[in-house]
Amino acid sequence: MRRERRNVVATEPVGPYTLLRVTRGGIVPGIPGQFFMLEAPGRILPRPMSLCLAPAGELAFLIDPVGPGTHALCELGSGDELHLFGPLGNGFDLDVERPLLVGGGIGVAPFPYLSQALGAPPAVLGFRSDWHAQAAELVPNAHVCVDPTLVTDLIPSGFDVLACGPAPMLEAARGVAPEAQLAWEAPMACGYGACYGCAVEVDGELKRLCVEGPVLRAA
Amino acid sequence: MLLNASGCLDALTAPEVARSLDAFVTKTVTPLPREGNAPVRIAEIDVGMLNSIGLANPGIDRFVTRSLPQLGKLGVPVWVSVGGFETDDYAEICSRLDDHEEVDAIELNVSCPNVEAPVESVAQIVAAARLASRKTLWAKLSPAVPDIGEVAKAAQAAGADGLSVVNTIRGLKLDVATLRPALGPGHGGLSGPALKPIALDAVANCYRATGMPIVGMGGIRSGLDALEFVAAGARHVAFGTVLFADPDAPARIRMELHRAASERGLNSYEDAYAIAHEEVLSLRTT
Q1: Residue in B with minimal Cα distance to A198
Q2: Which helix (H) or strand (E) holds B251?
Q3: pTM
Q4: Chain-chain contact of A190 with B43 (C-beta, under 8 angstroms)
């Protein structure tokens, strides 16, 4: 992992989300599911973002503008600079026989890069609206559902599930696929084990997501 | 010296960051293991952040058997932050640490923002720790008291060797969508830039009250911030929130600190020590 000041190549709208593309510099993209801390202009703390795509010479992040930090990131433009720190945490275990990507909302963010690494496996993706579902265009072989259909009702048996999405979706995915790999999310101040802020309770134990996750085995 | 604020760095997961400091301060250790508070534990605000970690730590037994031997190999002096809920807790841990060569100093966390810290209890805790330990003792104080100078004097009289000033202070953030507390436990400890003027004033007060060695901390983000703390009366400075945003901060701030001193006609930043308490005319500017 390393921290570098990088340039914004472009920002592109994807439904309600923004794809932020930055120059790669000396930073390696890492394993799908790993994340980077992105300096949020004008804010105190950086924001954790999993890598969405790694085109030649670039790193790209899919960002949902939900608060002041993510809004500031979405408002960046070509030529702007920001600090990037990563890759951090533990990504998905790619040694799986029949992968199925299961995602909800902005949980789709790591899937384009993950899909590439796994040779475009099938994906089931759930969104709250058709507008949000535009993000599915970044993921090949995706079956898309929109509220009120639950993506976790569409998981066929016999697959190795790799899931990312809101906590209730991950809990439901675990119910259907007990061996699933789940990528969790939590507010995070540092991303490298310093603050103990990103602890989440999994199976009655508190896990520091930035160093023990964000991808954890369900079982 | 440049240090980290307790709870703002894990030297075992980020040893290279710890090695960029002059001493590493551990997360607070308590007698028994603590999982800490329920999530959500951190929340950013416009001028800083709130945390409510709740002293998550492995407890003194596991700290001594597992963490301390590894910390001893870091190549950086180790200060152990000690916490508890009654005076005996502090005495017990200090006594346990006393024979461990890996421990260079003890910082007594008598100011967790969830615990009241009246003058009497600070004095009692420091006195008990003094009896239990031959190590250098730093008392970490809260600025959320009527007169921190009085608390500093009490710590000095009880046998503290120095003061760490300041700990976070209580704050509240509401989730604007639900109008409920953003943090799981409700309130949290405020840190970051918002804390700086409060911390700087606390350092100045403690210096005036005691003249003791002080580790100044609270919202330091730049070398100039650090120089202000030295000028207010801090011998050393520590970094908290800035480490979360930038693990390279110690090296950067060290460079900036030397430059900021030099730009003011000082040979080193140590020459700025307590200069804020002198007549304005003695401050050389360029």
Answers
A1: B41
A2: helix B249-263
A3: 0.94
A4: no
